[in-house]
Amino acid sequence: MQTRTLGPLTVSALGLGCMGMSEFYGASDDAESVATIHRALDLGVTLLDTSDVYGPHTNEVLVGRAIAGRRDEVVLATKFGIVRDADDPKARGVNGRPEYVRASIEGSLQRLGVDHVDLYYQHRVDPDTPIEETVGAMAELVAEGKVRALGLSEAGPETIRRAHAVHPIAAVQSEYSLWSRDIEDGVIGTLKELGIGLVAYSPLGRGFLTGAITSLDDLAADDFRRDNPRFQGENFQKNLDLVAVVQRLAAAKGVTPAQLALAWVLAQWDGIVPIPGTRKVSRLEENVAALDVTLSPDELAEITAALPAAAGTRYPEAQMGRLTI
Question: Read out DSSP for 168-201?
């Protein structure tokens, strides 16, 4: 397995996002999800990504059950900071207060069944709490041995700099793919300058770039992508046209669309670790095979030039304001 570094951590060059195993993408099967995590470990995938908000809480329990007895094979990442409303499943808040940081790690450790987390992210920046206070509390967890390295998710350049001045930030997790490239303007340059890795979530465009989604009928009634602007109305058809380009380029290369999309992300910088999510062994194996796909400079340029920007924002309007603060 190829490896890359995130601060003090050495991880597999491709990780596994576990969110969809518990929520957001329709019905799932815990036994199948556990089998997928076990297969990932067998293949040498070490970075497993979860969060206390997924479920909520149930995804950490699932991951903890899957890694029981194999903890030493895992670089375990989880997150805190997004707060859900029990009365409104779609409502979200953000909490970065120091006392919440401590309460959150204790809950995560218990659910995961571990004595420490390798990479602990603030899931979204709290605009009402100075980042210095949040990261200061996170740094205390490192000193206590409950966390090995710190991360931020969807943070902007200035916030990253301020956080890094308090305690080294190992990784910033942001959406990055062939159709989500807005962090190229500012964030990635900041990460390179400071020696911080990028963990790229949704590197397959929430499944769209695989070509497996051709209509909304392919999504379960409770699939959150139905509320995503890129999956709605005229945007959906425009993005299908974009996927057709990916399919054409992948066919010419002799790989699947998913493998082409992942290979493109991996080739952008050796500080990037994509974490495509899946709950199926077959998809996992397909994704891992992307590590064997080499794209020449000419091929990379062709792919980049051939793909227009995606139609629609990454999230519904109410959530866009929480990104890259």
Answer: -EEEEEEE-BTTB-GGGTTHHHHHHHHT-EEEEE
Which residues of the chain register pLDDT less than 50?
A: none
Q: What is the β-pairing status of strands 3-6 and 9-12?
A: antiparallel
* Phi and psi, residue 85, nearest 5°: -100, 120
Residue 104 and residue 98: Cα distance in Å, rounded? 10
3-state secondary structure of 272: strand
Active site (catalytic) residues: 54
Place of tokens 């890094």: 164
- Tell me the C-alpha distance between 248 and 120, whole Å: 39
Which run of H or of E encompasses 292?
A: none
Q: 152 near 143, Cβ under 8 Å?
A: no
Helix-strand-coil split of the chain, %, nearest 5: 45, 20, 35
Regarding pTM above 0.90, the answer is: yes
Question: What pLDDT, on the 0 to 100 scale, is given for residue 309?
Answer: 87
> Residues 80, 52: contact at Cβ < 8 Å?
yes
Which residue type is seen at 58? T
Sequence-distant (6+) residues with CB within 8 A of 225 are 25, 206, 207, 219, 231
